User: Fold this.
Amino acid sequence: MKLNYVSNAIVLFFSVCFLFACNNPKKNEKETEEHAKERQTEIKEVKKEYKADSITLVNEAEWTMYKTAAEIRIKANTVRIKELKKILDKHGKTADVASEQYLSDLEKKNENLQKRIDEFKREGTDWARFKSEFDRDLNQVQTSLKDFKMKGNTK
Assistant:
């Protein structure tokens, strides 16, 4: 009998210990959800800060080099446009109106590129996006000028 009481007491003791050791699962679930929400909020804040840093931080040296190189390319385009205008003027009436209009459009695009590079604000602007769009547009003007030369040679 004593053994039966002792074994019942041991079972009862471990049962009570087990019950006290286990926390309320709903309480743990609520705490976990709150903790997860706090972490998500922190992650969102860090992402915003990172995005803001990546947009506003344009290295001064990189900007100066990029702007100088772009201005050199724009000036080369301007020189090429003037040369092509002289060639068209030499042809006089034989130069077609479409070529003159095309050249005029390229000149306007080139002037707009110069204006864009002059008015670019380094802070609050997505540098990578500006750079890729500007390079694309500048390359398009340069390619068009090279193609225009080919058209002039075939006439």
Observations:
- The chain has a mean pLDDT of 78.
- Residues 59-154 form one domain.
- The two ends are 120 Å apart (CA to CA).
